Amino acid sequence: MSTSMTGTAGKADFKPVLWTPGDWNAFFGFGTNILVNMLVLTGLLRFVLKMPDSLVFGRILPALGLMMCLSTFYYAWLAYRLAQKTGRTDVCALPSGVSVPHMFIVTFVIMLPITIKTGDPMKGWSAGLVWVFFQSFILMIGGFIAPYIRRITPRAALLGTLAGVSVTFIAMRPALEMYMTPQIGLVCFAIILISWFGGVKYPKGIPAGLVAIAVGMIIAWGSNLFGLGLGGLSVKGVGDAFANFGFSVPLPALGQVFSGFEFLGIILVTAIPFGIYDLVEAMDNVESAEAAGDEYPTTRVLTADGVVSLIGCLMGNPFINAVYIGHPGWKAMGGRIGYSAATGIMVVVLSWFGIISVLLALVPVVAISPILLYIGMLIGAQAFQTTPIKHAPAIVLALTPHLAAWAKLQIDTMLAATLGAAQTVGALAPDKVSAVKTAAIASLPQQGVFYHGLEVLGGGSILAGLVLGAMGVFVIERDFVKASAFAFSGAVLTYFGFMHGEAVGIGGGLGVTPAVALAYAVVAAGFFALGRLGTSSDSFSHPEMPLAAPAE
């Protein structure tokens, strides 16, 4: 029996279509997103960690390609099964790839310090593999806990903290890059904007992402004719990039994994909290997909991330896999099942044949940046569009820890660069670096910059945003007992440093940030007492919340 419902085939023997015209748009959009991440990752390995090209292009990238191919194929299959089960033609596969926050964490917190300490990049590589090894098992175990957490956590809290990540750590960097080279960035952004938001079709159905990249390349290479050098591309750079051409397949790296266990103490300090981060982030992204109409099993998603990450780790990849932010965006531009599998094939070709360095020399990164800004815009908007309007204040509350974490990162980076430059030019003795940094941070409040506040509020931002957002929702709904439960969970998480702290532990025995933990506990007790008193009393009248404060 047929049905007129939009996006539904309504046939018992329904066979989903593996490729649709919209998959081209999503493929070029998501594929370029993945490409950017791979280019950044390659730069970190080669120029920050100083790893030899033989290791980067011969071992790490092939293993990473295998992991991402397995992941994207699995999520394409999961989407196929969902479409088959529901008879719908609009099911979109979950996007996945290397976890971007973890890409920087494992590089700067694990691999770089150990590489510097030992003077051996191979040791840093081994430590990174052990980090992913433990993260993988945390994800697999957490997959069985996550569905319960999703059931008790309001959507506004899950999507609000996700919006915070997307606005700050996903959208801000590409937005800044666009304005650093506006001749390319703004033009490419306009090309994407009028197609993906305005619905304008380009001739012969050419995907907007491909048009943007082509126009960006034309402007960048054309500018070289006038000596402008927009985009930083050169013929010499392309020639040098071909030196890394070759064919490499992933090989087992069990020896490197287990040799890294000598750094276990350093690794576990970050592996546990960031395993919890992964758990919450994956839940947020599954919730985001459900809000867009595609309901996926959280346990399967997290378990799959853990399994493919473990396979990649054992083959030599020190970066963890994750379900990505952005499902609603790829779905909105027409992505269904095929775009995910096509991206997996693309990644294998790029990583096994050493093509990444050539693309890095041919395509200006600023031409791809607008795609990431688009995703950040869409996810930020989704938090408000798919939740009750009265929950909007709770979403804004969930955003605030991410704003603090982003601002602190900018200050830390600036201070490190300034101190490094001062040492380089001989204006600062090495033994004075720590004292100068401490003095600089201490002087910031006089300039109106509350660094310590950013440090505390932004610590464990994804968990802090979720807890604060949930508290906000339940207070708005006048369910004070549930608000109390989330406040108490905030007290426990803060006590052990998972929130509002820079390290996991119990500090001097009173917690990492004891004052904040105590404050959460007091709030929890107050909410609980209010809930037990009942909300029907005249003492607790519930006036409608005005959209704006009345004029005095």
How does this model look, in words?
By secondary structure, the chain is mostly helical. It contains 22 helices and 2 strands. The protein has helices at 21-48, 53-86, 100-118, 121-142, 146-152, 155-180, 182-196, 208-224, 235-241, 254-259, 264-291, 298-314, 327-332, 338-352, 356-362, 369-385, 392-424, 433-443, 451-458, 461-476, 480-495, 514-533, and strands spanning 96-98, 321-323. Helix 1 (21-48) packs parallel to helix 3. It starts with 20 loop residues before the first helix and ends in a 19-residue tail after the last helix. 49% of the residues are buried.
Strand line-up in the sheet with most strands: 1-2
Instruction: Say how many strands there are.
Output: 2
Order of helices and strands: HHEHHHHHHHHHHEHHHHHHHHHH
What oligomeric state do these chains adopt?
single chain
What's the N-to-C terminus distance? 62 Å
Query: What percent of the residues sit in helical stretches (DSSP H or I)?
Result: 55-70%
Estimated share of beta-strand residues:
under 5%
The secondary structure category is: mainly alpha
The number of distinct helices, counting runs of at least 4 residues, comes to: 22
Overall 3D shape: globular
